[in-house]
Amino acid sequence: MKGNARVARQSVGRAARKEIPEMPVVDDKTIDFETIELLFFAYRDFVSDPDAILAKIGYGRAHHRVVYFVSRRPGMTVADLLGILQITKQSLARVLKELIDSGYIRQMAGPADRRQRRLYPTLAGRELALALSEPQSQRIARALEGFTPEMREGVRKFLEGMSRSGKDDQAATEGDG
User: Radius of gyration (Cα) for the chain, nearest Å?
Assistant: First the structure.
């Protein structure tokens, strides 16, 4: 028994002492902390209204993202949604099942390939997506008040630049037209 206790203690000791990877030397004067903080606070406030709505029905941000994109692109495949969200099938499966079971999303077989699963918002799903997006849209409108068209274009370009796949997402949206 003493031998087993020693092995257990050694395992716990090893788990507690994780090796820290070597960190690069960074000159903190090159970091734009002000913009980082502004982005943090903007994101926090941007998601606060939808978070409050979602909390009332027991959902979270993952549910919001699924309802949003399925409502924006009805008929998208599960594979398309996985690509947009860049999450695993396992992560999506739970959230999608809850949304389907609750009557917000409908899943149908593809017309050409019956194995393909296409996603559509139900009327309740569309209403939820709009309820979540409306306060965000109002927040954006207030923030852009008084901006010239050129300034608005600058904001859009900035946000695209911040996105890893801004051009891919834009092309997909334009292709849906």
Answer: 22
| Three-state SS letters, 82-109 | HHHHCCCHHHHHHHHHHHHHCCCEEEEE
- Does residue 163 sit in helix, strand or coil? coil
On the CB side of 63, CA atoms within 13 Å amount to 26
pLDDT 10s digits, 54-70? 999 999 999 999 999 99
What is the rounded distance in angstroms from the CA atom of residue 42 to the CA atom of residue 157?
17
The burial class, CB within 10 Å (0-12 / 13-18 / 19+), for 1 is: exposed
Residue 174 is predicted with a pLDDT of 47
pLDDT in tens, 106-156: 999 877 777 788 999 999 999 999 999 999 999 999 999 999 999 999 999
Q: Tell me the C-alpha distance between 166 and 10, whole Å.
A: 48
Which stretches of the chain are DSSP H helices? 2-16, 33-56, 61-72, 78-85, 89-101, 123-144, 149-162, 166-176
Sign of CA dihedral 31, 170, 110, 98: positive
